[in-house]
Amino acid sequence: MPENVLCNGCDDCYPNDKIKESVCINAPRIYDSCSDKDCLEDLPVLLTKPVQCMVDKAVNVRLHDADVCNVSIDLQPVPFHRGFYSVDMVFYFDLCLDLFMAPNAMPMPVKALSVYSKRVVLFGSDGNVKVFTSDCPSDMSDGLTSCSRNCPKATVQIAEPVPLSARLCEHKKPCDISCHIPKCISERYGGEFSPDDAKKDVYVSIGIFTIVQLERNVQMLIPAYDFCIPHKECVTTSENPCELFSTIAFPTNDFFPKNYPCSEPKYHCGCDKDK
Q1: Spacing of C-alpha 261 from chain mean position
Q2: Which sign, positive or negative, has the C-alpha torsion 258, 264, 267, 272?
Q3: Cα(169)–Cα(41) distance, rounded to whole angstroms?
Q4: DSSP character for 196?
Q5: Which of 2, 25, 99, 214 has the fewest CB atoms within 10 Å, i.e. the most exposed one?
Q6: Region of 125 on the Ramachandran plot (φ > 0 left; ψ -120 to 50 alpha; else beta)
Q7: CA separation for the pair 267, 141 (Å, rounded)
Q8: For 197, which DSSP code?
Q9: Per-residue pLDDT reduced to its tens digit, 224-270
Q10: 3-state SS string over 60-78?
Q11: How far is CA 200 from the centre of its chain?
Q12: What is the pTM assigned to this prediction?
């Protein structure tokens, strides 16, 4: 059996008998988490007035790319369910659409926005104390330190969205959600959304993968080996761009993509030895 070895994150690793002391640290602990794979079908697309005029004249549309430009998170305790919290998330998708103004014509790329709301309930434990820290901004009126509500911290991780499809349809009176768009988001597109005189609407379908976590800062006792002192010397970069380029390895894997993985390496993928 190999010896159980713990690493301190630096260049050296220390075995268990090298533990010097036990130290108490304040670190975030994840109390609950969940992961989801969501297919967001027929999300309404919000368009500015100049883009809406182009959409009204288009004969077809294609979803070229989708990106999450921001996520707003609201955390609230669940009534009569102590220790549980509802996490309300609003995803703002930055869309790149290709508009076809005529059959067989070159597409015209435009920017648009789509919004999706999601709620999950997770366990975040109890916090019955008030938190005062020296790095909190003080109250300018009397110089007192402000305190924060002792709620867990919600973290949302999302992989790059998968653009699936887009379609045009006749205009229907959509729900007025433009008023809920934060100003910092609407400024990215240079105008207000949802013109009243629209003739066509765009709907997109997007696939997303998310992980939602609730974590709290807690005091934990951990073994300590030593201070983590860097052993690598800093290397001064050269001002000669060609000399810097010469240190970069040739990207062989980029020119020769990997084959489909075989479950049985001694056979060819997709082939049976007996056939």
Answers
A1: 28
A2: negative
A3: 15
A4: T
A5: 2
A6: left
A7: 76
A8: T
A9: 888 888 887 776 666 777 877 788 888 888 788 777 666 555 545 45
A10: EEEEEEEEEEEEEEEEEEC
A11: 31
A12: 0.74
